[in-house]
Amino acid sequence: MPSRLFASPGRGGRGGGRLKWLAAFTTAGVGLMLGANWLMGVGGAADEPVVVKTFVQDRDDLRRLDIPWPAQGQAAVSANGRTVASPDQRSVPIASITKVMTAYVFLRHHRLEEGLPGPSYAYSVEEAARYGWRAARNESLTPERPAAGEVFTQRRALEAMMAVSANNVAHEIARWCSGDETVFVKEMNDTARSMGMESTTYTDPSGYDPGNVSTAADQAKLFAAALKEPSFAAVAGAPYVAADGTRNANRNPLLGQAGVFAGKTGTTTHAGRNLVVARRTSAGSPEIVVVLGQAVAERRSAVDAVSSILDVLPDGSRASAVSGPGGTGKYPLQ
After folding, report:
1. Which side of the chain, N or C, has fewer Cβ within a 10 Å radius?
2. Distance in angstroms (rounded) separating the CA atoms of residues 43 and 29
3. How many other CB atoms are there within 10 angstroms of residue 258's CB atom?
4. To which H or E segment does residue 177 belong?
5. Could you read off the pLDDT of 162-183 as tens digits, one per residue?
6. What is the distance between the alpha carbons of residues 212 and 229, in angstroms, rounded to a whole number?
7. Other Cβ atoms closer than 10 A to 105
8. CA angle, 131 as apex, 112 and 153 as ends, to 5°?
9. Residue 77 covered by a domain
10. Domain containing residue 192
């Protein structure tokens, strides 16, 4: 597929009127072609990654999109280093979306090269003993019960945490990295502060504790940074393969659809349903969509909210005001 369809007429000001009219006219025509091409791309060969054509080149392009923000909770969209968010951005529990930061800190401690397993770690006696206790609390765990001393490579540990949202492995990662969970959580918070995630606080590495809070805008910023780590995208879109070879599907139902190649799910009673996804685009940098606080009772609430937003992103010829069920108007960039 071609790369950029057109460049924004400028980032700085009000000038370039003719170019803006020409861009708008061009967009309307090309947008019709885009819809057909995008639909064909979704049904393309499985071995060829889908690349979605995008008009999002700068912050003005994001502002022009008519984004259908979810009626409850909050959402954010990030593209080309720019983020636009729904009106009600406030710190809320994020459940297992917390594990994105856990993975990011782990990869910063030990960079995982593409295709390699990485260093090996022993599963602790203490965590092995906690498996039944965690299961009784309905925590997400590895499908198998790891034995004390069982070896996890870095890649297998990350895939367990990102694909099946294994809390037991998230807590082990904290110990492997820092020797102490409290020290690791402090590093998570220090990292958030260094990235400007002022509305984010972490209290554990798994997200089970409702004290792990953030905003959709902060999490979009984090996911964009994590994707710059060489192996993050691979582990955030992979299945989990247990020690006995059993393959467990990634719980993100949008993987492989409309160019989506990575993401993270997270659901608890306190947090509701949450979902982060990233998809490939013709502009080179991915589009990232985050939704938080969707209805727990509706199994597809987060999936449907993300899908509705993804549906409008390829088409830059939408209305000039960002609007949706959550409100109408141009919302400030985060």
Report:
1. N
2. 23
3. 19
4. helix 167-178
5. 999 999 999 999 999 999 999 9
6. 23
7. 23
8. 15
9. yes
10. 17-328
DSSP H helices, the chain, are 17-42, 59-64, 99-109, 125-136, 154-163, 167-178, 181-194, 216-226, 232-235, 301-312
What is the number of structural domains in the chain? 1
160, two tokens: 């367990």
Q: Is residue 10 part of a domain?
A: no
How far apart are alpha carbons 305 and 69 in whole angstroms? 8
Give the whole-angstrom CA distance, residue 13 versus residue 144. 58
Token pair for residue 22?
A: 């020409």
Q: Give the distance from CA 249 to its chain's centroid.
A: 17
Give how far Cα 268 sits from Cα of 146, 275, 300, 309, Å: 24, 12, 14, 23
pTM, to two decimals:
0.78
20 or 236: whose pLDDT is higher?
A: 236
CA angle 135, 104, 156 (to 5 degrees): 55
Is the Cβ–Cβ distance between 197 and 222 less than 8 Å?
A: yes
Is 8 among the domain residues? no
- Write down how long the chain is: 334
Token pair listed for 257: 């659809």
Query: Do residues 317 and 27 make contact, with C-beta atoms less than 8 angstroms apart?
Result: yes
Of 279, 281, 277, give the one whose Cα is nearest residue 291.
277
| Whole-number Å distance between alpha carbons of 277 and 306 | 8
Q: Does residue 211 form part of some domain?
A: yes
Task: Specify the CATH number for the domain of residue 298.
Answer: 3.40.710.10
Tell me what percent of the residues of the chain surpass a pLDDT of 90. 68
